[in-house]
């Protein structure tokens, strides 16, 4: 079964709006796990607009499932990840002023840099995942730099899904097959939701993990966090 990692960035966004500790990010991470999440994802950004670097250190003390730290690997990020030693680091090429992540790596152009990063994190026993578009050449490039996994950037899938599900998923199926042929493990994320997740999971072979934040936390406003996590988990169960 594909595993669900809950991205708690948006909890930190709400907390930061008032400067105090409500909602309590650490308690929410503990509760997400209690409600069935199989991982916790955070994406510290240089401006700390949601997840703060201190949050990552605090979360390391309590997360008992898979801890996944995503981000643009600048010096501060590299130092943080190497200090925390999460189960997984996901390398994302987003600009500091980007509203959210908006593209995968060009794994061919940035091959030398990515190879260095993969080696750096693997040295500390941290699994490395590289965020890529659903493009077979980029998957091949990711393999060439030695990563363990890739994460497919699913925003284009989510955008096209309401109008043409088959067209939306086609390049993702090809990229997933390519990853499998090359021996790469597969994650996916960005804008996955209750609307589009089940179909994606049914169609994408060998999917190990999805990380979901924005839609899941928004749904929790209506359904509650525990129910919402269970609803997402049900989308990931395959009928046999
Ligand atoms: C890497 C990725 O796909 C993003 O979804 C990211 O983790 C979300 O970041 P924000 O919560 O800052 O939009
Ligand atoms: N890696 C994707 C992620 O963690 C969450 O993305 P989103 O669901 O907030 O778009």
UniProtKB/TrEMBL annotation:
It is an enzyme of class 2 (transferase). Its main location: cytoplasm. The record marks 151 as: Transition state stabilizer. NCBIfam families: pdxJ, PRK05265.1-3, PRK05265.1-4. HAMAP family: PdxJ. Gene3D superfamilies: Aldolase class I. Pfam families: PdxJ (PF03740). 3-amino-2-oxopropyl phosphate binds at residues 7, 18, 191, 213-214. Belongs to the PNP synthase family. The keyword Phosphoprotein does not apply. It comes from Spirosoma liriopis. One of its GO terms (molecular function) is pyridoxine 5'-phosphate synthase activity. It catalyses: 3-amino-2-oxopropyl phosphate + 1-deoxy-D-xylulose 5-phosphate = pyridoxine 5'-phosphate + phosphate + 2 H2O + H(+). This is Pyridoxine 5'-phosphate synthase. Catalyzes the complicated ring closure reaction between the two acyclic compounds 1-deoxy-D-xylulose-5-phosphate (DXP) and 3-amino-2-oxopropyl phosphate (1-amino-acetone-3-phosphate or AAP) to form pyridoxine 5'-phosphate (PNP) and inorganic phosphate. The keyword Isomerase does not apply.
């Amino acid at each position: 079964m594909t595993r669900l990692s809950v991205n708690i960035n948006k909890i930190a966004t709400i907390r930061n709006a008032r400067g105090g500790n409500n909602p309590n990010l650490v308690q929410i991470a503990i509760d997400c796990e209690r409600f069935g999440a199989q991982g916790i994802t955070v994406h510290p950004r240089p401006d700390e607009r949601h997840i703060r670097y201190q949050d990552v250190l605090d979360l390391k003390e309590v997360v008992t499932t898979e801890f996944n730290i995503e981000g643009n690997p600048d010096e501060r990020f590299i130092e943080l990840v190497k200090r925390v030693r999460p189960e997984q680091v996901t390398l994302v090429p987003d600009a500091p002023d980007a509203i959210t992540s908006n593209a995968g790596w060009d794994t061919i152009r940035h091959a030398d840099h990515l190879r260095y990063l993969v080696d750096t994190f693997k040295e500390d026993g941290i699994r490395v995942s590289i965020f890529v578009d659903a493009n077979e050449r980029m998957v091949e490039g990711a393999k060439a730099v030695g990563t363990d996994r890739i994460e497919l950037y699913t925003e284009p899938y989510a955008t096209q899904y309401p109008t043409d599900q088959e067209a939306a998923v086609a390049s993702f199926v090809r990229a997933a097959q390519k990853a499998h042929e090359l021996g790469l493990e597969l994650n996916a994320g960005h804008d996955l939701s209750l609307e589009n997740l089940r179909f994606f999971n049914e169609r994408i072979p060998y999917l190990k993990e999805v990380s979901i934040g924005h839609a899941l936390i928004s749904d929790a406003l209506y359904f509650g966090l525990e129910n919402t996590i269970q609803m997402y988990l049900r989308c990931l169960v395959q009928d046999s």
